[in-house]
Amino acid sequence: MILLLSSLASGATTFTIGTNQDYPSVSAALVAEGSTASQPIEFLLYPDYNESYEISTNGYPMGLAFSVDVIIRSSDPGESRVFREVHAYNGANVTLVDLEITPVAASYTDPMERGSGGTIHHAAMLATEDSSLTAERVSVTGLASRGLAWASDSDLTLIDCSFVGNTPETGNTNPYEFKNYAVALRSAESGHTLTLVDTEIDNASGPAIAVYSDSGSQSLNITGGRIANVGGESAGSAALTFGEVDTTVSGLSIENAGNTAVQLGAGQHDWRMLDIVEGKGAQGGAFHLADGGNLALNEVVCKECYGEQGGGLVYARGGTSVKVADLHMIGGGGREGGALYAEGVALSVENGRFCGVANDNGPLISTSSQIYVINTVFRNLPVNAPLFGGQGGDLSLVNNTFVDNAGPIFGGVFTGVEFINNAVVAGTTLNAGEAPIDLTFSYNLFYDNVEADFGLGIQAGEGNQINVEPGFDPAFLADPTNCEIDPVPDTGSALIDAGDPNIADKDGTISDIGAFGGPGAEDFELGWNPADPSELTLMGGCSGGGGLAGFLLALPLLGLNRKRREWAKQEQG
Which stretches of the chain score pLDDT less than 70? Predict the structure, then answer.
């Protein structure tokens, strides 16, 4: 980005700004020479620059408005200069570098108000009328009841920016009240983009990031960064989209989002490499998907995410599919779908880990459509409700491991069930619902389960091993409540090469039974290793919503803790 700015600056007319420079202020330079410029203007702010000199032009009582291409930056890269608000309009391209924006407490009738005649507070940075505004290493601190950076029918890019200790309005999600959003884009034209790179928003009210499309399609792109301590009255306290908005997000951290961390509308949504802590809300703790959107999650850690009505991870009431890969959900949960709740939306989970998640009043994963799960571990789940709840769709469970769970694996109504290459250890019954019409039930291992009966319509098929010890790795047996340690098979395990011969492992041999077999399995040595393992204990570890201590108190009631002691005795004997 610096190279881009440098190349732009080389073709610009440069004014040095400061008491002993070309002009004492940007506004003075703009009035004297800049208003008629036909090429980009660069304002280079020197240490003797005094922001109190700024007096606006074009009738605005604060900040500076530009209808030409402008660069404003510090003369010393990395050293910020205090500056007033900036408004890019009428096709301008404005770039800000190394600035600390200090807004003035005032308001005016803004062109982005769309003719409503109202008066709103001016954001610290604003782009309107097909303009673009780029801010790099710009900070805004201590702003109350005001927006931080907004774009209307324009593009907005924030790079390595910091918005800390600000309090925009009440968190009302009326899209025409931009004062409720910290960073936002609204457009009636197709093709505008809001981009954030390594940007932090901490301590804000209402949706921290919002994109609203009146018509056409807009884009939200986020790479890196952090959103923390955000409160709000409505869902989407960290990020919110209305209308047709495609979102691409990678490497974002969300902590303590006040009401459903992310709410997404229509569009294609690709979110990956996420770390979400304390995502809580009425419908969905981490994500609420609505209005025809499709969501793909990849490499997500979700700690203590809880949905009061369902979906600690995702609550989906619209769209075609929710696809989850490489998920680690620890603690939290919800009602009517402790982890994933969907209405008519197909769900798929691959290489997932669910540890200590509580489904209070319904299945862990529930939908009226299809459910497909492969290479996933379900462990230490303390609630008696089924792990999967059907409402007439199909259920496919292939190469998964179920260990020490209090409830049955599935219940409700599934038209078809495919149950292949799964390991079920220290659990209860398999099916607590109606008998499926179509059933494939083969090459599974069952050990130390409370009930011998599999449930209605379930009869042992080809290749199943009943009451056969799985032979998990000693590291797991020594510490089965530790969410960091996977129940991988040990050398000589009955799980190895015992799966469906029509399914191969990555090395071409017959598939292993359980989550670590089949072509999609992770290599054993590539199991999850958090950067700071101690953080799990501090955050509640493998709790079922009540903290690590509460979960440990419940362990004597679960089968694996008993069986672990027996296996340990055998090892010693």
Answer: 1-10, 34-38, 51-63, 103-122, 144-146, 167-180, 205-206, 232-233, 452, 523-573
Could you tell me which residues are beta bridge partners of residue 218? 245
Burial class for 573, CB neighbours closer than 10 Å (0-12, 13-18, 19+): exposed
In 439-508, which ranges are continuous DSSP H helix? 474-478
The strand pairing partners of 240, in sequence order, are: 210, 263
- Angle (nearest 5°) at CA 282 between 538 and 352: 55
Whole-angstrom CA distances from 532 to 262, 487, 503, 539 are 25, 20, 36, 11
Q: Which two tokens stand for residue 48?
A: 């003797």
Cα angle vertex 538, ends 328, 406, to 5°? 50
416 sits in the region (left: phi over 0; alpha: psi -120 to 50; else beta) called beta
Q: Report the distance separating Cα 313 and Cα 311, nearest Å.
A: 5
Asked if 238 and 257 count as a contact pair (C-beta separation under 8 A), the reply is: yes
> 182: closest CA among 265, 247, 239, 99?
239
pLDDT for 303 equals 93
Burial label, 80 (beta-carbon count in 10 A; 0-12, 13-18, 19+): middle
Do 190 and 217 touch, CB atoms closer than 8 A? yes
CA distance 491 to 59: 78
Contact 78, 137 (CB under 8 A): yes
Is the four-CA dihedral 23, 24, 27, 31 of positive or negative sign?
negative
- Polymer length in residues for the chain: 573
**Dihedral, CA of residue 189, residue 193, residue 194 and residue 196, to nearest 10:** 180
Three-state DSSP at 35 gives helix
Query: What gap in Å lies between CA 232 and CA 180, rounded to an integer?
Result: 9
In order of 439, 455, 459, the CA distances from 142 in angstroms are 61, 61, 65
- Quickly tell me which residue has 């390594």 as its tokens: 198
Q: How big is the CA angle at 141 (ends 135 and 145), to the nearest 5 degrees? A: 100
| pTM of the predicted model over 0.90 | no
